[in-house]
Amino acid sequence: MTLSLISSSLVAPGMDFQTGAFVVAFLILSLGIHEAAHAWVANLCGDSTAKDMGRLTLNPIPHIDPLMTILLPAVLILSGSGFIFGGAKPVPVLYSRLRQPARDMMLVALAGPISNILIAIVLLLATKILVYTGGMSMGQLAPQVLIMSVQFNLLLAVFNMIPVPPLDGSRVLAYLLPSSLRTSFQALDRYSMLLIFVLLLSGVLGRPIMAGIDLSYTFIDGLTGGVW
Questions:
Q1: Which residues does the annotation mark as catalytic?
Q2: What is the C-alpha separation between 172 and 123, in angstroms, rounded?
Q3: Which of 9, 39, 113, 219 is most buried, taking the most CB atoms under 10 A from its CB?
Q4: pLDDT attached to residue 98
Q5: Measured between alpha carbons, how far is 19 from 4 in angstroms, rounded to an integer?
Q6: How much is the CA Rg of the chain, to the nearest whole Å?
Q7: How far is CA 152 from CA 65, 79, 157, in A?
Q8: 166: preceding bond cis by omega (within 30 degrees)
Q9: How far is the C-alpha of 33 from the C-alpha of 2, rounded, in Å?
Q10: How do the domains of the chain map onto residue ranges?
């Protein structure tokens, strides 16, 4: 399942409507690619459920959840919340259809955050090309939209790798746990959204998430030609 958390610290103060609209469009596209990556790997591992339901597509529309993608973020924005929380419609994966269920579920889970890292690399490289060879400044629309989209994709990757159900990181942790503990841990799925909201409201995730974004940015900055 793809969940996103947009902290107010990542949103540029005074961002105009045009910039915001482009950033939201990139974010929705990124959520769709994240879910399509889950579907693609699931299909490779033997479960074609998502593919059969039309979810193995880069078209973001099949991945939109009316509540999580539209209504909840809109309510938080209108209420002046310090963060914007939302997500895409989860890709269905049938555990029993995977060739090696525990391992393959981990691979399916990892595909989403990896896709966001790859998107961030492409967008950061595009930003540097525009600035260094296109004569554009960071204050102009295109570089500003791209760099914010880089940050949001890194946020998607880092946030979804937190090892708490239903986030992707929980599937990775489940695979790493001894089989005697795996079933008990997976049973936490029934309390998944409650766990997420408790952690968000407690504020304990703030620093680890920002540290993860900073570390990821430093990594991809180096991959795309050195310090920005």
A1: 35
A2: 27
A3: 39
A4: 96
A5: 19
A6: 18
A7: 19, 21, 9
A8: yes
A9: 10
A10: 3-223
